[in-house]
Amino acid sequence: MTQSRPLRVLSALHSLEPGGVERDVLRFTKGWRDAGVDARIALGRREGRLEEEAPDVPYIIPKKGRLARIETESLWMMLRLPAIIRQERPDVLFFASNGLMAVAAVTKLRLGRDCPPIVLRTSNSLRPPHWSGLHHRLHRALLRLHGRIYAAIVAMAPPLRDEIIEEMGVSPQAVTVINNGALARATAERLATLRDATPRDHAGRHFLAVGRLSPQKNFALLLEAFARIARPEDRLTIVGEGPLREPLTRQAQDLGIAGQLDLPGHCHPVDPWFARADAFILSSDFEGLPAVLVEALAAGLPIVATDCAVTIPSMIEGAGRLVPVRDATALAAAMDAIGNDPVDVPAMRARAARFTLEATIDQWIGLFRKVARK
């Protein structure tokens, strides 16, 4: 690491399309810069609704090319990222998502000994519960090849550490637990204050889900479950945008719940929805530790979640109900009953406080300095 300038960390993102990983990197980068790190972001393309949330930090963006589109965004990053790294000369490369692992591997191969040390944060479970045995074994073999290229791997919560060690075949010393700084402390306090001040005197039950309208989130399962238990005045709101908007809209019409479904699209902030809802629903097939779950805890909103990652059971203990993935019957039953369950709101908010940016920033910077010194 060069001593004449601050520690330089370069994070890579495909674009500013809305997603948990993208929000994390934007939030982390601003926090690291405020703490004295020269943190920058390499973007494949500066496009997406998160443009309105993008902080004033250095973005390095290649000239547009025919592969600079969502269908081929990983290939585009593989082609362009090495030149950006040579130009920026970072001390550490940071990849915040499983979805960027192929980009990291190709970057390492292309740069060879000139490649800065790479830190990976796994964003989703490496062992999704719905996978077949063969799929799991093939994926594990690939992960073990990947495990050799990282200077450090970050688990977003303690339960993920053992999973990373087992699936990637790396030594325990290579894996560091840093709770996912899913929101700023001020945001957590704002969510709690607004929910405490908001009357929920609406007719019927209001269920809330937040996330990209993509297959991983399995909102189709949520629509099916809601249709099974919906009373005439009940409502379901899914805040987010993505490629499945039209199929979900058609499904709601087929199920007869189109008039009870709200799809407001990408919204920032989402505080009013957390304040007004009666329960938060996580219907995903797989996750890591979703920021929206931390937001629900900070608000003190009862939760129904699928058992889609090893982190989920401990996160929602005392806060709601856990159901198997892809089980519409179990999800519907839990949604129908969640309003009768007592939840420990002070404990939920204390748990959320462990997953703020302020609670984790020193750990990140310490890890980056340690990796850079190597």
TrEMBL record:
InterPro entries: Glyco_trans_4-like_N. It comes from the Bacteria. Residues 18-181 form the Glycosyltransferase subfamily 4-like N-terminal domain. Pfam families: Glyco_trans_1_4, Glyco_transf_4. This is Glycosyltransferase involved in cell wall biosynthesis. It comes from Sphingobium lignivorans.
